[in-house]
Amino acid sequence: MSVALYLISIIAIANFLLSISILLKKEKNWEKLIFSFLLLSISIWSIGILGFFYEYLILYRDIWIKITHIFGLIISFLFFLFVSYYKTPILKNKIIYFILFIPTLFFSYYLLFSNKIIGRAIRIEYEIGYWYLIYASYIIINFLLGFLVLILKIIKSDIIIDKKTL
What is the rounded CA–CA span in Å between residue 69 and residue 125? Predict the structure, then answer.
């Protein structure tokens, strides 16, 4: 196994342990739950990468690449959700967050049950379907919106940085 796969294994284990430690705490709120699920998704995504590149699991590469893509999609949405909900939610109605989650469910379904986004895995490569660009755009939009919300929250925050401490 290469050094990269060892590092990915460490990342998967660390994120899993962090996620479980957050879930086991007595005080729970939406922010902590979302962050815990984000860490858990990163862990599963990392395990999917390991499964895809691990040479003894060659028969299951189609499954591993689907897991990797589904959890990459979930990570992008959970990042946006966490950033937009942290401290002060940007959207007051939780139903809107669910509506924003619908494309994630849609793409997850098509990743699992069709070849429109990704196709068969051939060695350590896989076929890209004609919906892949739309799928990738959705992930990029989730991350860009998350970073935009984060930047706006930083700009609007009441934190004043003392220039003397810099």
Answer: 13
- Condensed to tens digits (0 to 9), the pLDDT of residues 4-21 reads 777 877 888 888 888 888
Residue 73 to residues 24, 59, 102, 156, Cα–Cα distance (Å): 26, 24, 12, 29
Return the half-sphere exposure (C-beta side, CA atoms, 13 A cut-off) of residue 158: 2
Question: Is the separation of the CB atoms in 35 and 82 below 8 Å?
Answer: yes
pLDDT (0 to 100) of residue 166: 52
Q: Is 122 helix (H, G, I), strand (E, B) or coil?
A: strand
CB 53 within 8 A of CB 1: no
> What are the backbone angles phi and psi of residue 68, rounded to the nearest 5°?
-60, -45
Diameter over CA atoms, the chain? 60
Distance between CA atoms of 67 and 73, rounded to whole angstroms? 10
